[in-house]
């Protein structure tokens, strides 16, 4: 009688992969860059990141909100005012983004 051993595959997630998963795509870095300067509205973000489409910006903001990197505050005005600001988790990325900026200046 053969005994079959089940091998359980354990996948260990890399910390860098986890961080990139939380941050998201390329637009996230530019959104973060803008929010390090303070709270911004959608239009301000879109103007500051000129090449991002409204859909890509919306998707990026939703992703960052779902991952608790930023908060979205809606004010009951006409039209509705929506502001975005970084959470403590989002602010913790400032040092990393700053280092990426320095690296880009030196090597890109």
Could you characterize what this model shows?
- The chain has 108 residues and is an alpha+beta fold.
- It has a domain at 39-107: Arc Repressor Mutant, subunit A (Orthogonal Bundle), CATH 1.10.10.
- Helices cover 53% and strands 13% of the residues.
- The protein has a three-stranded antiparallel beta sheet with strand order 1-3-2.
- A hairpin with a 5-residue loop joins strand 2 and strand 3 (81-86).
- The longest helix is centred in the C-terminal third of the chain and has 14 residues, at 94-107.
- The radius of gyration is 19 Å and the shape is globular.
- The relative contact order is 0.14.
- Keywords: DNA-binding, Transcription, Transcription regulation.
Task: Give the SSE map.
Layout: H1 15-23, H2 26-35, E1 40-41, H3 42-48, H4 54-66, E2 70-75, E3 81-86, H5 88-91, H6 94-107
Antiparallel strand pairs: 1-3, 2-3
Which short descriptors sum up this protein?
3 strands, three-stranded antiparallel β-sheet, 108 residues, alpha+beta
Mean pLDDT: 90
Largest sheet: 3 strands, antiparallel
Question: Can you tell me the CATH topology of the domain at 39-107?
Answer: Arc Repressor Mutant, subunit A
Percent of sequence in beta strands = 5-15%
Distance between the termini: 62 Å
Summarize the structure.
This protein is of the alpha+beta class and 108 residues long. The chain has helices at residues 15-23, 26-35, 42-48, 54-66, 88-91, 94-107, and strands at residues 40-41, 70-75, 81-86. A hairpin with a 5-residue loop joins strand 2 and strand 3 (81-86).
């Amino acid at each position: 009688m053969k005994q079959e051993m089940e091998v359980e595959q354990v996948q260990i997630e890399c910390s860098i992969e986890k961080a990139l998963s939380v941050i998201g795509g390329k637009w996230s870095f530019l959104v973060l860059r803008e929010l390090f300067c303070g709270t911004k509205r959608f239009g301000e973000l879109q103007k500051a990141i000129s090449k991002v489409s409204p859909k890509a910006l919306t998707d990026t903001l939703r992703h960052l909100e779902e991952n608790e990197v930023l908060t979205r505050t809606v004010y009951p005005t006409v039209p509705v005012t929506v502001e975005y600001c970084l959470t403590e988790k989002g602010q913790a990325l400032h040092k990393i983004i700053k280092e990426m900026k320095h690296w880009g200046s030196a090597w890109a």
